[in-house]
Amino acid sequence: MAHHEFLAMTVVEGSDLSTDSKQAHTEQRDEVIFHQTESHSSAGALLEGYIHLLAIINFGFTLQAAWEASGLAIQFSLLNGGPASLIYGSLLAGCGSCLIALSLAEMASTDPVVGAQYRWSAQFAPTSPRFWGLFQGWMTVFAWITTSAASLAYLAFGAQALIALNNPSYTPQAWHTTLLMCAFIIPPVAANLWFKRIINWMETVGAIGHGAFWVVTMIALGVAGSRSSNTFVWGTLTNDRSGWTQPGVAFGIGLLPIAFPITSFDGVLHMSKEVKTPKLNVPRAMVFAVVLNSVMQFIWLLVVMHRFGDPEVVANAPGGMAIVGVYMSATNSKPITTLFVVFQLIILFISLFNIFASVARLTWAFSQNNGLPFSIFFSYVRGPFSS
Fold it and tell me: What's the whole-model pTM score?
């Protein structure tokens, strides 16, 4: 593929194009990139629209896995901010993410592209569009790479906590975590290399489990858990456990594990070229996913805090994973606790397939625009990997 300058497809700075001209320009830009891709490899198949509305809704819905991810990380929030970070933080993260998603949905309804944020920055920035496009591209790609690593870490920590729960003699080691992360990464990578079409049916399974397990765990905690006081749930701000003594700082740190899954709603955007009728379906899927996940996360955390149980049991939970202590305190049963944690791990594992699918397409698109080192290597997709 011939080299082309980064984001040469953007509107020339200072030009005054009509709406029709801009639309024609966008179509011409995408056509150029499409032909460049096909001439270099058979990756044109990657742009085929085969994902229908329900599948992309399920994709975004499961990708965030908000209550599962935040549940596996509540120990970090309990040490920094406590219940205040969990309850008020989920409200703050949910409302903020929904507002941002609405803004991005409007952009996607006019120009649904795989590059999304960096493409729009380069196209609409009033000054230095190529710089802002490159800057946004690096920010977005790096953010998704770290998101992939965080999800793998949650899965590894969860697996180690279950081993420690059922085998008290087990002592988690850092190298165990690394090996588990390597093991969890293999299936989603293989699926995204050779079996991308399984995403459609996997999202249905993941979405059903995402909703069903949410209901089951809340009913179990509501029925069996011991009630916490309203003061504990709504009025407790912890800032003397982790070394961060300033309340604002502690609250902010505790907010991070809660905001982490909710802010991944843009993953849907990077699947745009494979979605049928993307100008309609991508915005709908993104907004639906973030609103529903925000509501589910808040309600689930509210139930967990109201049925928190014995703080000593939670504090001494196997593997240091607080949710294991919450389930044990409520059910007093290792098998049931194991089952509930497995519920969360399964959905978080399925979300990995979505995360890898999204970040792979984002990286591919950014490489197509020469945004990364070795862009020719990363943008080249050989025949066996393009379908």
Answer: 0.82
